[in-house]
Amino acid sequence: MSENIISLNHVSFTYSESKVPAVQDVSFNVKKGEWFTILGHNGSGKSTITRLINGLLWSDENDADSIIVDGDPLNEQNLWKIRDKVGIVFQNPDNQFVGATVADDVAFGLENRGVPREQMLSIVDKAIQEVGMSDYKTAEPSNLSGGQKQRVAIAGILAVKPKILILDEATSMLDPRGHDEIISLVKKMKDKNDLTVISITHDINEIMLADHVLILNDGKAIAQGTPKDVFKNEKLIDSIGLEEPFIFKLIKKLIKAGIEIPENVDSQEKLVEILC
Ligand code: ADP
Fold this sequence. Notes:
Layout: E1 4-13, E2 23-31, E3 35-39, H1 46-53, E4 67-69, E5 72-73, H2 79-85, E6 86-89, H3 102-112, H4 117-130, H5 146-159, E7 164-168, H6 176-193, E8 196-201, E9 212-217, E10 220-225, H7 227-232, H8 234-239, H9 246-256, H10 268-275
Helix pairs in contact: 3-4, 3-5, 4-5, 5-6
This protein binds adenosine-5'-diphosphate.
Residues 15, 17-18, 22, 40, 42-48 line the site of adenosine-5'-diphosphate.
C-alpha cells in the first residue's frame, strides 16, 4: 500500500464567477488501496477537489503535472483515460440515473464504451448481483429507496472497472440504515475489486474508516494524517469548529475515569475487545 495513485501538488482553483479561490495551494497523496477521507464544513472545497481529480473542472492556474492520476498527469490528452479510472457516486442518487430500468442504467457506461452486447449483459448481471439488487433488474430507478438507488449507482460504476471510487457525500441523503448499508457495501467492494476509495464527507464519525484523513477549511488543507494523528491537535480542530469523533471522546473519558487504554486503540472494535 505504498504507491501513490493520486497526487495533487499545489493545486488551486477559482470559479470564474468568484474572486475567492475555492481551493488554495492544496497538496496530498492518496496511496493505492487506501480509504482516504476528505473532511470539511460546507463550502470548504471538497467537491471542487473531486471535480478537479477527474477533470470536470480545469484551471490554468496549476502546473501541467500538478494532478497525477495513476501515473498520468491530468491533461487534455489523458482526460478520458483518467475518467475511466475514476468513478464518482454523488450525493443525490436521483441526479445520476439515465436508464429506464436498473439494468439499463448499469449498462450505460458499458454501452458508451462500445462493449459487445453479450459481454455487456453478463457484466451488468454480475455488477447488479454484487450490490445485492438482482431482484430489481427491471425496476424503474425512481421507484427505489435512497439506499437502493446508491447501490445501483455503485453497480454502474463497478461495471466499468474503475481503480478509484469517489463517494461525494454519497450517504448524506440516506437514513442511518441506508448509510450503514452503503458504507459496508463499499468496504466489501473495495476489498473485492482492489479499489482505492476517496470519501468526501462532513460526517465526523465516518473518518474512523479512513487510513488517511485530509481536513479542508476555506479551500486550504489544514491537517492530514491518520484519524488519530489529525485529532490529536485539539486546538486546530477546535479552531475550525469540528467535533471530535465519538470514539476518541469516549477513550478520553475512560482514561480520565482511570481505565487504562493502550495507545493503539483507535476503533470501536479494538475498544470493545479490550473492555469485554
Ligand atoms: P464543499 O464541497 O466543501 O461544500 P465546494 O467545493 O462545493 O465545497 O465549494 C467551495 C467554494 O466554492 C464555496 O465557497 C462555494 O460557494 C464555491 N463554489 C462552488 N461551486 C461554485 C460555482 N459553480 N461557482 C462559483 N462558486 C462556487
